[in-house]
Amino acid sequence: MRYLFDHWDKVSSKIKKSPRIFLFFDYDGTLTPIVSTPEKAKLPSKVKKSIKRLIKSPKFRVAIISGRSLRDVKRMVGLKGIIYAGNHGLEIAKPRKALKNSPLKTICIALKSGLGHIKGIRVENKGCTLSVHFRLVRPKHRILVKKIFYRTLRPYICSKSAKVSSGKMVLEVRPAIDWHKGKAVLHIIKKKKTLPIYLGDDVTDIDAFRAIKGKGISIFVGGPKKNIKADYYLKDTFDVKKFIERLLLL
Ligand SMILES: [Mg+2]
């Protein structure tokens, strides 16, 4: 993985040559630093201003794809003229039929009753998916959280009615349908002739990196990582801010 700014000449000339650029951003950990609770992850005002300027340019389109619910990510960003996708992209595509039979509600109740006694735990039902946040749980109790989580989910995983994944201090449950951030990206760009650029910091973003392989530019946020395949990396959310500002100068 190469550091984006070390190869800026090459990347910027590719961007300059493309008449249309589709920028995809993950939210938490990409546009905003990771903080103790999801409510505190405010979009820095400078970043917001730069994105606002980007959308005004006819060259750029912007989409934000988050693990948050659609309503939540829209509220956190609060900008018009952006494509928003919540629940890892499930909420733009709305594969309704599969979701109707989703056992998420039952799972949510089971998780709340199983985990409720652990201090700092937060079970969040996001409609199409649910998240168990344990950042505020004392480190020595985190193993217990995972144990209870997987014990509760085992029957659903076995019957292929739910899928689980884990991110930074969060465990997630989604309906077992074949959908992820990568498919959401391809769904959004469809056949449009544009250069997609995707920025993300977590394992759920890898599907998107893979989806645009050979078609666009994938950028991992959080330093070089051996097990993650992306075209380039940026060190942190501060670098992302710098990247957006550089785009505005092109
Ligand atoms: Mg993220």
Q: Judging by the overall fold, what is the CATH architecture of the largest domain?
A: 3-Layer(aba) Sandwich
- Computed CA radius of gyration, to the nearest angstrom: 18 Å
> How many beta-strand runs?
11
Low-confidence stretches: 94-98
Strand coverage percent: 15-25%
Helix content: 25-40%
Per CATH, the superfamily of the largest domain is HAD superfamily/HAD-like
Highlighted features:
binds magnesium ion; four-stranded antiparallel beta sheet; Alpha-Beta Plaits; alpha/beta; 250 residues; Rossmann fold
Overview of this protein structure:
The chain folds into two domains: 2-94 and 179-249, HAD superfamily/HAD-like (Rossmann fold); 96-175, 2-Layer Sandwich (Alpha-Beta Plaits). Helices cover 38% and strands 20% of the residues. It starts with a strand and ends with a helix. The chain is built from ten helices and eleven strands. The protein is α/β, with parallel strands linked by helices and 250 residues long. It has helices at 8-17, 45-56, 70-77, 90-93, 96-100, 104-115, 142-158, 181-189, 206-211, 237-249, and strands at 2-3, 21-25, 60-65, 83-85, 122-125, 130-133, 162-167, 170-175, 195-200, 217-221, 232-234. The radius of gyration is 18 Å and the shape is elongated. The strands form two sheets. A seven-stranded parallel β-sheet has the order 1-11-10-9-2-3-4, sandwiched between helices. Strands 5-6-8-7 form a four-stranded antiparallel β-sheet, with helices on one face. Residues 26, 28-30, 200-202 line the site of magnesium ion.
